[in-house]
Amino acid sequence: IIRYHFFAVLGVAALYAIVLGVFLFYHALVHTKQDTKTSQEVANAFTTTNHIPVFDGCLELPFPIMFKGSLWYVPYITWTIFGLIIAGGAFIFYTEWDMFSNTTMAEVTAGILLLYQITSDFSEYWVLSRNQVEIEVLSREK
After folding, report:
1. φ and ψ at 135, to 5 degrees?
2. CA 20 to 30 Å from 18, out of 37, 80, 113, 122?
3. Where would you find the membrane-spanning parts of this chain (predicted)?
4. How many structural domains are present in the chain?
């Protein structure tokens, strides 16, 4: 029975990544305005944190609140889903630790890091896309 739970968590994680990817593609294609750019304050904040790989997602957690835009809370929903997926997987690992080989644990760890990065990148995209300013007319004419 634990095997089915393990595959259920993997399936939910894969579905989460696919849905997030399709949503991002659609949103960027349909809802992104061509005559805007990210505000300098927000761009500078992300430039600072992006110099610290792996931990940048954690460092950027306060940004949706700091740089509120429309639907600013959406990244927190995705972080919550990520946390629930990780908690479900951790519970299965904890209860059936001896069933998993070192290779399986390494693969799952890599999957967790990928899911973390996908969630972090979504959060960054969302904050950047919520904090757009119009490009000045003079710079468009040059």
Report:
1. -75, 135
2. 37
3. 7-29, 76-95
4. 1
Amino acid at 123: S
Distance between CA 3 and CA 56 in Å, rounded? 33
Report helix, strand or coil for 69. coil
Cα separation, 94 vs 88, whole angstroms: 10
Tell me the average pLDDT across 126-141.
76
Nearest to 122, CA basis, from 83, 77, 65 = 77
Provide the token pair at 47. 């430039």
pLDDT in tens, 48-73: 999 998 899 999 999 999 998 889 99
Segments forming the whole domain that contains residue 105:
2-141
Strand positions, DSSP E, the chain: 36-38, 132-134
- Give Rg (Cα) of the chain: 18
Quick check: 75 and 122 in contact, CB under 8 A?
Answer: yes
- Token pair 């950047």 is found at 128
